[in-house]
Amino acid sequence: MPLTPEQQAEIEQHRAASSQTRRATVPALEEILYEPIPVLDHGFVRVIDYMGDDAAIVQAARVSYGKGTKKITNDRGLIRYLMRHRHTTPFEMCEIKFHVKLPVFVARQWIRHRTANVNEYSARYSILDREFYIPAPEQLAAQSVANRQGRGDVLQGEEAVRVLALLRDDAAQCYDHYEEMLNEDADGNPRDPERQGLARELARMNLPLNIYTQWYWKVDLHNLLHFLSLRADPHAQYEIRVYAEAMLEMTRRWLPIACEAFEDYAVGGAHLSRNGIEIVRRMLAGEDVAQADSGLSKREWIELMELLGRS
Amino acid sequence: MPLTPEQQAEIEQHRAASSQTRRATVPALEEILYEPIPVLDHGFVRVIDYMGDDAAIVQAARVSYGKGTKKITNDRGLIRYLMRHRHTTPFEMCEIKFHVKLPVFVARQWIRHRTANVNEYSARYSILDREFYIPAPEQLAAQSVANRQGRGDVLQGEEAVRVLALLRDDAAQCYDHYEEMLNEDADGNPRDPERQGLARELARMNLPLNIYTQWYWKVDLHNLLHFLSLRADPHAQYEIRVYAEAMLEMTRRWLPIACEAFEDYAVGGAHLSRNGIEIVRRMLAGEDVAQADSGLSKREWIELMELLGRS
Amino acid sequence: MPLTPEQQAEIEQHRAASSQTRRATVPALEEILYEPIPVLDHGFVRVIDYMGDDAAIVQAARVSYGKGTKKITNDRGLIRYLMRHRHTTPFEMCEIKFHVKLPVFVARQWIRHRTANVNEYSARYSILDREFYIPAPEQLAAQSVANRQGRGDVLQGEEAVRVLALLRDDAAQCYDHYEEMLNEDADGNPRDPERQGLARELARMNLPLNIYTQWYWKVDLHNLLHFLSLRADPHAQYEIRVYAEAMLEMTRRWLPIACEAFEDYAVGGAHLSRNGIEIVRRMLAGEDVAQADSGLSKREWIELMELLGRS
Amino acid sequence: MPLTPEQQAEIEQHRAASSQTRRATVPALEEILYEPIPVLDHGFVRVIDYMGDDAAIVQAARVSYGKGTKKITNDRGLIRYLMRHRHTTPFEMCEIKFHVKLPVFVARQWIRHRTANVNEYSARYSILDREFYIPAPEQLAAQSVANRQGRGDVLQGEEAVRVLALLRDDAAQCYDHYEEMLNEDADGNPRDPERQGLARELARMNLPLNIYTQWYWKVDLHNLLHFLSLRADPHAQYEIRVYAEAMLEMTRRWLPIACEAFEDYAVGGAHLSRNGIEIVRRMLAGEDVAQADSGLSKREWIELMELLGRS
Q: What is the three-state SS of B280-302?
């Protein structure tokens, strides 16, 4: 894992401290607070802070519903109802803060989720570490033929060896030159006193997109779930999906009821179009519907049949 | 204050419970957690939850600055630097959740701050309480003559008496008719069994804008400070300013260093235009600048002279 | 309709002017540009400006997809694909600006859609007109018994007459007193020279929630469609739904392809949960599934059977 | 410039077409519509679409001010007033859409401005072009000694030659290997029929941060001005500043009055702290204030003296 002994010690110190609070507290999440969960070869996710528990969703919804809800004693029922009917605002009342270490090309996908707060390590200000993402052999996939945006079979034999070597060597060489251009040793003194050293904000441009960066990322539950529904999805690129899966696991610890509802309705569910509903109704009525008379494009038809387990 | 004994008891119960947490904790804010601070005649603000302390701002900024900051040992210095130079993202790493009871016309101003999470009590779903904001006599101000958007002197004598009576009587009558239209007693049974009762979502339209509503409002520190800089400002309407002032006081408890920086730079500071700077330079150089040769409009000139204590 | 001859003339003047532009232009929308479409008794919606057409969605998506799409000649296919697979960012590339006149209680629901730009008529600064929403007799509905948030049958006979009279009379009286408190005539002079007049920002609090306000509301297509999917829905309150329906009609003129895809997938579609999909599969396989062994709550079961046309 | 003849032809075709519109139109901006303005060695910015003109700001503000403004005949005065007093919402009523080609490390800074709509060219889906940013010799700056986040003198002699060679050669080699790993020729056929080719979404990770990407970026005027105030600022990194400066120039064409107000108040202005104001007042009163008795830190004192032209 990617931590120095100093970083490890800092984390342990954080974990050892404890205070009294009147706030809602979730012991299952406290257990892993600050602890980095490894992702990819040098990355991690760790929870830095959180606000709220399952009850906080109900509490906020009940202000919104006021006295009217005094008979709904079942929090789980209410949370599932809210999730099912897209009453999203009560889910915004929980908040979580992560510290994430991730390759730059993953960070570039991630940052497109705009409704979140971010502080990233600055390569204008500081020097990045020599850490690059190199895929594990079983992740070294060929281009998919069916889907321009996906992966096919795993590369084999010499091609795999060659690709790994290229990724490793180019990263190493680019980083060597980054250091050479910076001309700074570990103490910030010039390596070569004859040279000035290129500005950090310029030198970084020589680094490849698989170099690791890190950030603090804070988000409310509603927007976290939206992120997870897109990024823990099988269509998401593997390298971001493993982060989303680690975070989904943390969300299960944090908010078991809301997370279960999310997995039932959002992750495990599917959307039917107007036509799709009509076709299901016709099929349930015993009709033998074919693509030709379905009103669906071939692609939509295939997607629907897969969903209905008929392909 | 506007609480029933049941509400008071619920709050006391909340306050009595306490847990262990590894999270950053702020004892000065814990002290008043859940406690409603009265605002206006029936309103309140209370802190429901919070995330982070002053150190959390530094912590997030240091990820962003990475190893580069190892020599800045002074958190206060860094926070003030960030505030002064509009490095706003570390301030987004703290979050706070309020429960607010407030008149509808105040809620309408407040909600225009969009970067926040809100759950409001629903008058579609529930019945609103008979509580209206009636200004204290010293707040019953005449229209300002100078500023279309401001207040002048306090109304006196018969006019004041008449205005207060109108506000009180119209509110009472509108609420009586609201109840009559709803045709529901305290247990949800029809008052008059001959009538059906108007839908709640329609009946509420008879209520005046000074009726109280309530909501949960959750916001990050950066956006909270932006809200406070606009709404704790002397140009803000008094009825929202008193909420902002109560929240500013809570923010001082929560994040004393960040809040001090905010008050020094944002609240107590002022913005000079390009021309304004030029004029100050000329004045400091001993020149006797007049509005005519200042390049400023009359209004801008007056504003600048006030700022410089020369009016 | 709610326009003075002066306002009508201003609009006609706007409509008469025409310029050359190199921008994407939509003749069907130009036809009704600036024209107020009546909604409710005194309200309207009109389109003030727009950016983009159906092709602009494709154009933006193709930057995102780059050269890869050179074979997709069918814009409609691409737009439907994007809609179906929740690739929402290309839909943010179209923008529309509305001028809306609407009752305050409708404005309060509307404003909760935060990702939009708003400028509202200020009752701090100006005097509101004497215009209130009074429901048409066929909209004067009783409280629903099944759904706390909905309407039941239409009120009949004396109850209906009484409710309409209350709404009308309270609005009239509150407005009379608003004017009396303001103490301003049409030219801004005091009605009663002995009195100062209450500040506008205070006097407005005597107005009921059915008074009309107006605003400019600007939004991108993705967020507009989200608004329409919630507010043109049968579960939305009638008084906001009629605005959403008028705007949906305008969107059909503006972006016929995107709007058709939206109506097929979003409006006319439905979401199935993980369990719901399982049940449909079992039913299609010939099994006779009952609620008891469905794993669904009674309420979810009823919703699913309705969707499948089996209730 | 970075355009192929086909791209050039497509742009010319766009520019040649023209339609009638009732919308607000700005001839000075129409003149350059679609035309790429070169930035850096291979980048550009071009305006794709816009909504609104200076009058649209006034129009929106006047809804918000309603009848109250009938005497303000001076649009310029109103726009300057709005800008000076941070009434920002009317500035959100104008919208502009850019197509930008820019190095990835610039894109990473840019994207942190979240209140905008973005569609980026996808390197998961498509193959990036062989285009890298190589600084011009006069931009090849050393690390600043005073400011960790800034540049010092320009590198000279052999060091400059060596740095340019490293940047060029590493980029070329990384791109060669990118192509080799992809194993696709210009027609999408395998170069080497024995190999499968690595998935695009993986191969891209070998590319350095100075490779060019492109996107559509759409933003409202208020958020554009915020972007420009930070990125056209001398403290911004040169490589993003040149984009901001090109866009500022376009904004001058688009909204001359709003842009002038922005340059007077925001760009050319400065913020004084509470203490700073006090010091200016003391100096204007003839006092000889020194840092020691100013209450300012040394750094703040230097910043203030520079602002006042006293350093």
A: HHHHHCCCCCCHHHCCCCHHHHH
| Closest chain A C-alpha to C272 CA, distance in angstroms | 5
Contacts of B134 (CB under 8 A, 6+ apart): B41, B164, B167, B168, B171, B210
pTM: 0.95
The fold of B1-128+212-269 is Gyrase A; domain 2 (3.30.1360)
Q: Tell me A91's DSSP state.
A: G
Nearest to B118 by CA among D150, C168, A87, A164: A87
Kindly determine whether residue B133 and residue C205, on different chains, have CB atoms separated by under 8 Å: yes
CB D20 to CB C25 under 8 A?
Answer: yes
CB contact under 8 A, C205 and B105: yes
Q: Given CB atoms, is D105 within the 8 Å cutoff of chain C?
A: no
Fold of C1-133+212-269: Gyrase A; domain 2 (3.30.1360)
Closest-CA residue to C23 (of D97, D259, A189, B203)? D97
Options A231, A241, A252, A282, the catalytic residue: A231
Provide the residue count of chain C: 311
- With CB atoms and an 8 Å threshold, state whether A300 touches C89: no
Q: C99 contacts in D (CB within 8 Å)?
A: 63
| Digitized pLDDT (tens) for each residue of chain A, 311 residues in all | 568 888 888 888 889 999 999 999 999 999 999 999 999 999 999 999 999 999 999 999 987 433 334 444 578 989 999 998 889 999 999 999 999 999 999 999 999 999 999 999 999 988 999 999 999 999 999 998 877 778 999 999 999 999 999 999 999 999 999 999 999 987 888 999 999 999 999 999 999 999 999 999 999 999 999 999 999 998 899 999 999 999 999 999 999 999 999 999 988 888 899 999 999 999 999 999 999 999 888 888 998 999 999 87
Residue of A nearest to D134 (CA): A205
Catalytic residue selected from B80, B204, B231, B241? B231
Q: Is B281 on the interface with D (CB under 8 A)?
A: yes
Q: Could you state, in order of their start, the residue ranges of all structural domains in chain C?
A: 1-133+212-269, 135-209, 274-307
3-state SS of chain B is CCCCHHHHHHHHHHHHCCEEECCCCCHHHHCCCCCCEEECCCEEEEEEEEECCHHHHHHHHHHHHHHHHCCCCCHHHHHHHHHHCCCCHHHHHCEEEEEEEEEHHHHHHHCCCCCCEEEECCCCCCCCCCCECCCCHHHCEEECCCCCCCEEEECCHHHHHHHHHHHHHHHHHHHHHHHHHHCECCCCCECCCCCCCECHHHHHHHCECCEEEEEEEEEEHHHHHHHHHHHCCCCCCHHHHHHHHHHHHHHHHHCHHHHHHHHHHHHCCEEECHHHHHHHHHHHCCCCCCHHHCCCCHHHHHHHHHHCCCC
Chain A CB contacts of D202 under 8 Å are 135, 139-141, 151
Q: Which CATH class is domain D5-133+210-267?
A: alpha beta
- CB neighbours (10 Å) of residue B88? 16
Measured between CB atoms, does D195 come within 8 Å of chain B? no
Residues 260-279 of C with CB under 8 A from A: 263-265, 267-277
Nearest C-alpha of chain A: how many angstroms from B11?
11
Rounded Cα distance, D292 and B15, in Å: 47
Annotation marks residue B310 as catalytic: no
**How many Å lie between the alpha carbon of C103 and the closest alpha carbon of chain B?**
9
Neighbours of C289 (CB within 10 A): 19
- Mutant choice from A273, A279, A304, A306 vs C, greatest count of C C-beta within 10 A: A273
Nearest to A276 among C89, C267, C269 (CB): C269
CA diameter of chain D? 85
C-alpha D165 chain-centroid distance: 28
